[in-house]
Amino acid sequence: MAKFAVQFWGVRGSLPSPKTPEMVREHTREVLQSFARSLETSSDQSSATSRIDSFLETLPHWQFGGFGGDTSCVEVDAGESKVIIDAGSGLRRLGEKLMRGPCGLGQGEVHLLFTHFHWDHIIGLPFFAPLFVKGNKIHFYAVQDDLEVCVRQKFKKPFFPVPFEELLSTVEFHKMAPRKKIQLGLLAVTPYQLDHPDPCWGYRVEAETADGLRSYAHCVDSEATRVSPVDLAEDAALYRGADLCFFDAQYTLREFLQHMNWGHSAAPIGLEIALREGVKKIFFAHHDPAASDRKIADAERQTRDFLEAYRAKARQSGRHLPGLEWQFAHDGDRVDLGDLK
Ligand SMILES: [Zn+2]
Ligand SMILES: [Zn+2]
Fold it and tell me: How far, CA to CA in Å, does 155 sit from each of 131, 167, 192, 284?
């Protein structure tokens, strides 16, 4: 049975951040040192390969794989219906996957929604292979009036060698109205305003599943300067009761205070909104390009401490807080939101 699911193809913010050779060497050294220590204390007599495998299983995610370096790109999948949110560098790999389906035969139809046009959200566009295949239909959506200008500019010389006019696919532009729902196949999509230096629109995407309506709230990029229900006003509907929320946590709380008006937020702010609005699961993303995997894992620990303290304080004042699943996102994470109806 087809699923309603969300896959993260890029969870890094601002700039793609591949590991340098020096970082890989240092990381490998650390892991091998840990492995050597585990051998000294182990009585395991199985083969070297199986001992390596069982050792790797013991490593935390940040140390074995890390969080990833591609910038914003999310696939919201409902069987035959699918939307992509943002065209960061993660879009290249998603394009490769789509090329193995109808897009590779020139029979594909793609719906791509833009939150805004900062580089990290459009840098993957010229490397999106389905754009270059005759017969494919590519639909671009945004609330901003300058959607078409911004996309065309990306293909202008001397920034890219293939002009927009020479793309072989058929491209259509669609302007969305603020907070007005549109239906794309099985997916209902509504844009809500986020808090960012240039206008930026998050999306709530809903689908009917066998267990009822399920929802995904895309809330990147945002400083989330409006936290209270009064300040959020009609944009609170973006978060309300969402089954999965993707939230901007570029900074730790301390860094957030040092980067006011930079347009990015911190996990504790997302937790506060999520707990109040009844969000079921929240993934923190748009990781700072300068943050190592170890540093992001530290931020994750700080978030755990914050949540424990927050819950303890609520208990003291007699308030009941709902359950909430949360984690820091990794490139490639896929979240299943249920069987489609
Ligand atoms: Zn960004
Ligand atoms: Zn931005």
Answer: 12, 10, 28, 31
